[in-house]
Amino acid sequence: MSFLYRSAITITRKQLFLDWANDIDDDGPALSQELADDRRTVYLVPESTQRPVLSELIDEFWESIFEEELASWMEDEDSWPSPLTREMFDEWFDAVATDSVFDLTPEEPLTEMDVEAAELEDVAQFCAWCEAELDQSAVRFVSFKLADRGRFAAREGLVFPVVIDDERVAVGIMSGDDSEAAREGRDVVFAACTSRCEKILRKVVSKALRKVPGAV
């Protein structure tokens, strides 16, 4: 167990948020109060030596929380209410402050960045096809060029999973935009342990990418 130097704000969406969410997304599932209560969001804020004062925390962070809550339901900012105000925040959300936060699984990745770093480490250590541990002195690389690299810009420098079938996903790494690999057309690179796995990856990933818009 690890103590985190953070306090927390727990947010529950109120009826006005539910009305907005259901009004802009007629095709999706209805957001009920029961569902909203089951899916509260926790935001970590700076830890203090004194008990956190909720009103002061909301004064400082309400706009960031408001925008994140809206984006979690609808990314198109044109559909958001405007302008966002502090008074509106109180009408749309309930908030509760917590002064102590503990991590009960400190050995597990905590942040999105931690998860991505762990995924990159796995890709570098294991074959993208058979998942055997790689001999770094004999590793083989299989690379693919993307037809529309910009479409996948959010994955640059991160893992790039490709669905092969219902039971298998091959995971590679997308090169950085200014890297030598990108300049040479090696946009996505997979590691293989043997020539057999290399050949299989070239075949199955090439076929799978044809189903991904912008990939080929």
Provide a quick synopsis of the model.
The protein is an alpha+beta fold. It contains 7 helices and 9 strands, in the order ββααβααββαβββαβα.
Whole-number mean pLDDT: 91
- Give helix and strand order, one letter per element, not per position: EEHHEHHEEHEEEHEH
Q: Please count the helical segments.
A: 7
Helix content: 25-40%
Structure description:
This protein has two domains: 2-103, no CATH class; 112-209, no CATH class. It has seven helices and nine strands, in the order ββααβααββαβββαβα. The protein has helices at 15-24, 33-38, 54-73, 86-92, 112-125, 180-183, 195-209, and strands at 2-4, 6-13, 41-46, 93-98, 101-103, 140-144, 159-165, 168-174, 188-192. A four-stranded antiparallel sheet has the order 6-9-8-7. Strands 3-2-4 form a three-stranded antiparallel sheet. A two-stranded antiparallel ribbon has the order 1-5. Strand 7 and strand 8 (168-174) form a beta hairpin. The mean pLDDT is 91.
Features:
single chain, alpha+beta, 2 domains, 7 helices, elongated
List the helices and strands and how they pair.
Blueprint: E1 2-4, E2 6-13, H1 15-24, H2 33-38, E3 41-46, H3 54-73, H4 86-92, E4 93-98, E5 101-103, H5 112-125, E6 140-144, E7 159-165, E8 168-174, H6 180-183, E9 188-192, H7 195-209
Antiparallel strand pairs: 1-5, 2-3, 2-4, 6-9, 7-8, 8-9
